[in-house]
Amino acid sequence: MIRLEKRPEPSQNWALATPVLAVLATMVAGGIMFALLGKDPVEAIRTIFWDPLFHPDFAAFSRPQLLVKAGPLILIAIGLSLGFRAGVWNIGAEGQYIIGALCGAGVGLAFYPLEAFWIFPMMVIAGALGGWAWAMIPGILKTRFNTNEILVSLLLVYVAEQLMASMAVGLLRNPEGSGFPGSRNLQQYASAANNELIAGTGMHWGVVAALIAVIFAYILLNRHIMGFNIRLAGQAPRAAKFSGVKPARLILFCLGVSGALAGMAGLFEVAGPAGQITIDFNVGYGFTAIIVAFLGRLHPVGILLAGLLMALTYIGGELAQFMLGLPAAAIQAFQGMLLFFLLAGDVLTNFRIRLGRAEVA
Amino acid sequence: MDLSSINPVLLLAALMVASTPILLAAIGELVAEKAGVLNLGVEGMMIIGAICGFAVAVETGNPYLGYIGAAIGGAALSLIFAFLTQYLLSNQVATGLALTLFGLGFSALIGQSYSGIKPPQINDLNIPLLADIPFVGPVLFQHDIMVYFAILLVAVVAYMLTRTRAGLILRAVGESHDAAHALGYKVVLIRVAAIAFGGACAGLGGAYLSLVRVPQWTEGMTAGAGWIALAIVVFASWKPWRVLLGAYLFGGITVLQLNLQAAGVKIPVEYLSMSPYLITILVLVIMSADRGRASLNAPAALGKSFHAAS
Amino acid sequence: MFRRTLLAAAALAVASAGAALAQDPIKVGFVLVGPKNDGGWSQHHYESAKKMEAHFGDKVELVVQESVPEGADAERVMTQMALSGVDIVFTTSFGYMDGTINVGGKFPDVKFEHATGYKTAPNVSNYSARFYEGRAVMGHLAGRMTESNQIGYIASFPIPEVIRGINSSYIHAKKANPDVEMNVVWIFTWFDPAKEADATQALLDQGVDVVLAHTDSTAPLAKLQEAGALGFGQAADMAEYAPAPRISSIIDEWAPYYIERVQAVMDGTWESVSTWHGIKDGMVGIGEFSEVIPEDVRAEAQAMVDGIVAGTYHPFTGPLNKQDGTPWLAEGEVADDGALAGMDFYVEGISGDIPN
């Protein structure tokens, strides 16, 4: 008879060990899947986890790419984690990401072809404001009308996608693009471009912002009264009420911050790696970031590591696809498995496994 | 502007078909949520159901066996979720999202040899006599069996939840697992059963897409229907008959906007495509603005893990 | 001194390695926007790539990456392919255009071929197909085959490619049957089988009995079959729906072009070009006219195909007016490629507005 016994405190050792165990377990389970697909499992696993970091031909390129891929995931996940800790469920970061990109790119394109140093900062602010405003819709509906924020934020993702499609073929369409959909490429507009800060490192302003967000979130949660309120509201809502936490303010704060960060992530992406608003500019960062937030145990440093791990499986998965001919679907299933094992591992952190019969209390 | 060219009979008939996948998935999710489990993996379970149903129907040549296969497939996937959240106490939101990711990938993997195939056809019932009644006949009595099955399922769930002891226990588990546990009910087992039921229903909804509504198999063919099903459960404030209403409303708006276009009504199309979502939000606001009632109806233990501290 | 000889020896070694490489297979990369079995756009690029591989046997090595989102991800995939030593990369979605140009700039020795765009560079070509030629034939068939005089068109996004198809279909349907009316439904997606099915149903409910689709799945044909209406294969032949509802089809045939371009790389004759091929060069295939079509209509359609192939007929030949009645092409005037490439208006007679 196997039983779980709650630990008085989450185990620090297990908290560190379980992610490693989970990755190992995924390698075994994923390896079996790859073998069933007729591929060499060892080679497949090596390609996914090792080659992006150390392959002589690719590593110099793909190591910086890890930052490019992880940047938006971390930035969004940090914002979401604050809300998740407080029990505020923003599932619609994808929509806020889109609106941020639209607003930021819109501001930049409005000034085209003027070259000035203040254009890019204005775009960042516009992006953050756009994401913030989009998140305020569920926020205000929640505080005013008690409407469920999970659903409103989620439904607004679809609205944002439609809005973006119509912008890409309408208002923001490149006037020199011979009628094709898509905006001007911001990479080719120096004042608006979010280029690499140091060539070949992958570091662009979005990655910098993500790192700053990690630090700020850490300080906020550990040193600031708002962070205390957030944690209190999540762990003991009644106690929070008695200690004077205003739920409405907390909800608006959490949604606002996560929306603004998601919006900024969208702007950094559209002005940098992606370059332009297109019909399907968004690639699911907003949803993946939810998973990243939980993989990181809602802890800023954990999120940083989880974001990098997710990015590794994406880039390694791409390599495995074209070097070994693995189908994209297998990579997706593999990522799903990794998440299952990581989530399952949590149990060891919070519980002790006991064999034998329950003692009589 | 010629609204008269839209035939309400055909519109109603079309919306019943268009709504059935989300209705099936939503009623299953409702049962899971009533037991206190928030499973965001509906999209993943639907798409697994879509391919399992399709594959079984093609291999056996029997679409009804396909439905059974879809229900088993959806339930099997949901058991991964059940195991992780009920036994290993993982976070339900994150696990549900992971389930969707895994389901989308895994279904594509199974389905690689099934693209470009036609499934065996399912005939409409055309209930004799009734089908010939003007107006009502074509709207109500000329569909395939799953349309009726979905409605029947809503009725059964409504009855079970409110009128039977099993339903009472299920709701008790969803309201307060500690109290239910103290009364001697097996909280975890009941929740696992509810999750599996939700998975089976989602699987059926997916199979309805791949076997009837489209009908073909393509990767990612659910295209967000699972998320809509989730929205409809809350929209319905966890009441089975309102799930029916919500699904038909959503399906109806989707079909109506296409019909308006086809009828040549001059409307800004790109905004119309957003309308189903915007209107759903609007209705959500109106319903929840009636302060407290909708939120009171939410299962109190929704999304919370249960561990029997013995 | 010693150092220099060492370098020279190394250079020699590299040179001989290069000679050895010449016997090595040509490595050909494909970047696909959807899954390789999506039943539409990406599947046809993939199948054409397989035909190219079969043609050359072990003289080529094929690497494929599917479901690559446009934007930063695509650029990374192309870069990784280039780093892995591919000789030529085909990037098969419009949204890959700027990325292809960027990566092309970084790898001047690798050849790039971008589908359906308009930019080129010394090592970047672009290629596209004159699908509007096929749509003219389908439009003619639709006009002749409709009994209700109402035909439907399921459109994805309001871009020139799609608008060109709508206009071409309408012009020829109208020519074949002056009473015809066309209803256009925009669904703002390339791929959502359920929505495509719903749109088809909506058109059927309006009395339409022939539907043309510019989306990728077979969902419209399945719905048409139930209703006993007619339609066309799109991207693929979709022969499993023949003889009805599928009465003919427009097929994407990229294989001849892929074979030609890879051959050019082998021969060392590859040059940057802009290609816009139609039925004549085999890039647009017309699926078999099914027996549902009466003999004389089949002959008319065949005559149109022959005229297009011979160059004696252009689908956009005046007199044609724009939707608002302003003259566009005078009697006998033929639209130039520039006007076609950027088409953003309906021709006279189509009701409704282009979104935006």
Structure description:
The complex is a heterotrimer of chains A (about 350), B (about 300) and C (about 350). Chain A has 14 helices and two strands. Chain A has about 350 residues and is mostly helical. Chain A has a single domain (about 70-325), classed as ABC transporter involved in vitamin B12 uptake, BtuC (Orthogonal Bundle). Chain A has a two-stranded antiparallel sheet. Chain B has about 300 residues and is an all-alpha fold. In chain B, helix 2 (about 40-60) runs parallel beside helix 4 and helix 3 (about 65-85) packs antiparallel against helix 4 (about 90-110). The longest helix of chain B has 27 residues, at about 10-35. Chain B is globular, with a radius of gyration of 20 Å. The N and C termini of chain B lie far apart (about 70 Å). In chain B, about 55% of the residues are buried. Chain C is an alpha/beta fold. Chain C has two domains: about 1-130 and about 255-275, Rossmann fold; about 130-250 and about 285-340, Response regulator (Rossmann fold). In chain C, the strands form three sheets. A six-stranded parallel β-sheet of chain C has the order 2-1-3-4-5-11, sandwiched between helices. In chain C, strands 7-6-8-9-10-12 form a six-stranded mixed β-sheet, sandwiched between helices. Chain C has a two-stranded antiparallel ribbon with strand order 13-14. In chain C, helix 3 runs parallel beside helix 4 (about 95-105), helix 5 runs parallel beside helix 6 and helix 5 runs antiparallel to helix 10. The chains are: A mainly alpha (about 350), B mainly alpha (about 300), C alpha/beta (about 350). Chains in contact: A-B, A-C, B-C. At the A-B interface, strand 1, helix 7, helix 12 and helix 14 of A face helix 4, helix 10 and helix 13 of B.
Largest sheet of chain A: 2 strands, antiparallel
Number of separate helices of chain C: 11
* Number of DSSP-assigned strands of chain C: 14
CATH topology of chain A: ABC transporter involved in vitamin B12 uptake, BtuC
Question: What's the domain count of chain A?
Answer: 1
Spans of at least 5 consecutive residues with low confidence of chain A:
none
Order of helices and strands of chain A: EHHHHHHHHHHHHHHE
Shape summary of chain C: globular
First and last CA, distance of chain A:
17 Å
Content of β-strand of chain C: 15-25%
Element-by-element helix/strand order of chain C: HEHEHEHEEHEHEHEHEEHEEHEEH
The number of domains of chain C:
2
What class do helices, strands and sheet pairing of chain A give? Answer: mainly alpha
